[in-house]
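User: Show me a protein chain along with its predicted structure.
Assistant: Here is one chain, sequence first, then structure tokens.
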Amino acid sequence: MQLSEILRMAFGSLAVNKLRSILTMSGITIGVFSVIGVMTTVAALRGSIESGLNILGSNAFQFQKFPSGFNTGNNMRKYRLRKNITVEQGQRYQKLMEGVAEVVSLELYDFGGGGTQATYENRKTTPDLTFGGGNQHYLAANQYAIDTGRNFTESDVELARPLCVIGVGVVKKLFPTEDPLGKSIKVRGRTYTVIGVLAERGTSFGQSQDDIIIVPISRFAMEFGNERQSLNIATQALSQEVYNETLDKAITAMRIARGLKPEDENDFEVFSNESLIASFAKVADAVAAGSFVISGIALLAAGVGIMNIMLVSVTERTKEIGIRKSIGARQVSILTQFLIEAVTISLIGGLVGIILGVVAGNGLAVWMKASVIFPWMWAGIGLLVCSGIGVGFGFYPAWKAAALDPIEALRYE
């Protein structure tokens, strides 16, 4: 028999039992969908992660009370018992690092309940602003730039002037038709004069980076205190070549500022862009591993289902096989036909799973404001795995069909 004739008969047999074929394919579809969906999401988010977690400038690191949010296995009680890093400690650290680091940014944020809202005359923002205090190095350390107006000066911070710089998201809500510079806005019952507007940053992880208001850190600490908040300190080395040396000196300076004795362990955390990305990578790898386990179980069950359906098909078509053998069909032709049927069921299920997985994964990525991708490598691996399942679980039924005795098969009822 020619291959085209074998293919025609295989597809024709599948078409006869459409519902059974579709149900058998669904097991493969579910298994492939789970792994392709997860891997598409992870792959699409990696680019967003590397830029979104790039919250520090180049050659930079940061000190804070708690470890990064991706370190989920930490004993959080240990970190809650630590004393907050105060503005006074941050200022002492800043003096110790003079001449050693290019940028030392002191940062405090308002994490009080109820959200933060800004008002101007009869206009209001949504109550989800990022509101905090920073010194003159805050913008450089967090990769913000001034679009119009100016940044804080050293004297603004020293004198705790009631000034603020705002993001374009705040401008659009409070000053849709007028220049915001020089205007006074209210935040949490306090009045601040706008001196600068930040260049647009867009969103990261679905969170706007333009709905932000920053005031001098000394003013923030004076009006809101920092008993409930712990200071973040971002430091930028002079160059990549002196990064490690700067980090060592910074840790020593931080220990001095915190009043630690030589035998005391560090009561603060240090992280960089690389450590944040590495922490996320661990979480992503764990999610991917879990997806592989779930997909493996689903694909194994789907393979067993394919074998079962093909065995049923062989039993139902025993007489057909006997007739074909009696008029000259070779064993290899029978074997090839049933293998093609098994592989076709597996591949079609895999293709549907890939399409659904890519759509679902990219849908989640779009919601997270990440770029849309097509995971060619994982799609190729998925098709190869599906082909292997079709051959592996379809071979025994195909061999059984090919090995039937034509006389016995013709007598089968």
